Amino acid sequence: MSFFKVKNLKVKVGNFILDNISFELNKGQILAILGPSGSGKTLLLESIAGFHLPDKGELYLENKDISILPIEKREIGFMFQDYALFPHWNVKENILSSFKFSKGYKKININPEEIIKMLHIEDLLDRYPNNLSGGEKQRVALARSLITNPKMFLFDEPMSALDTRTRENLRDELLSILKKLSLSAIYVTHDHIEAFTLGDLVGIIKEGRLIQIGEKNQIFRKPNSIFVADFIGIENLFSATIKSVKRISPELYCIEAKHKQIVFEIISNEKLSANEEVFLSIRSEDISFLDESDERYNNLKNIITLEVIDIVQVDFFYKIFLSGDVHLKAITLKDSIKKHKINIGKKIKIYIDPEYIHIIKT
Ligand SMILES: Nc1ncnc2c1ncn2[C@@H]1O[C@H](COP(=O)(O)OP(=O)(O)OP(=O)(O)O)[C@@H](O)[C@H]1O
């Protein structure tokens, strides 16, 4: 039985409608919600927290129907981008203030000192919010919410105002705290890297509808639409026509799909028929480079020769822009650039594993 369940939720706020939202979370699981601006992410969290009552559908927390419970009775903690610390209270007073506003919550069984230590804010207790950095304010806000011992936690882009380094540090700490306390959480973000780092499950919302939700690996590997593929940062997306479909096991097919002059071999569980128009998605990290002399893959399909048209460094990686019958972007490391003598203008062989090409039906 799931720990938290949303069943056919419909909520109308002004002219905006969240509709047909259903998902389940197990205890300790984190769901990351991704979606463009204005797609209804905040309204979904606000509806779960109790700021808007459903027009249809139900919410269950530990099998209890909380759909129409007032906010303070739901035992759900939340933390939004706006830290909302009380400016005239010091850090300690701010943290303890949450006890005043959480009378409906269970007796505290998290030790406040432990939370303060976990969040490394022991030395800030006498300071006032005005004298804290953005990251420190978020730590205090998190401590203040955590010590009320909520059953579940909602985060609405809590890191978006922070610089990259602080955000990454806080994100890692947050993940370890949530896992340590076995807290279920829903985390809204624009950032697909953040979503895949934090989420056990990832959900994508568009125009008030949850268009895909699942285990993060499933979403990562098998986006169900061009919109999702694009939104989760898949850079290689192009059209193709199915040429042949051969069943190779009860659930798997070996499929040939043609894009311009290139025929890709794909292993997939999608049911398709010849002449169907589809999109192919390939993650840039799934493209391998081969040397001219490399004979290991000689009898395999999916070896293509393309021209390197640009090389761009991104953090520790290099993005290689490839052009020919298909335009692809590959991600690789400095070592591989050296090993394969990759430079602009060079024609290079690449290989893509048939299992790493994903077919998106149109
Ligand atoms: N209280 C409200 N009354 C009326 N309309 C609202 C209200 N709150 C939000 N909306 C509208 O509902 C839509 C969804 O808003 P929401 O804040 O949930 O989007 P979001 O996905 O969180 O966007 P962002 O990423 O920009 O924060 C928007 O068109 C917004 O203008």
TrEMBL record:
Gene3D superfamilies: 2.40.50.100, P-loop containing nucleotide triphosphate hydrolases. One of its GO terms (molecular function) is ATP hydrolysis activity. Its EC number is 3.6.3.30. Residues 1-232 form the ABC transporter domain. Coiled coil: none annotated. It holds the Pfam family ABC_tran. Keywords: ATP-binding, Hydrolase, Nucleotide-binding, Transport. The keyword Nucleotide-binding applies. One of its GO terms (biological process) is quaternary ammonium group transport. InterPro entries: AAA+_ATPase, ABC_SmlMolc_Importer, ABC_transporter-like_ATP-bd, ABC_transporter-like_CS, Mo/tungstate-bd_C_term_dom, P-loop_NTPase. PROSITE patterns: ABC_TRANSPORTER_1, ABC_TRANSPORTER_2. It is an enzyme of class 3 (hydrolase). This is Fe(3+)-transporting ATPase.
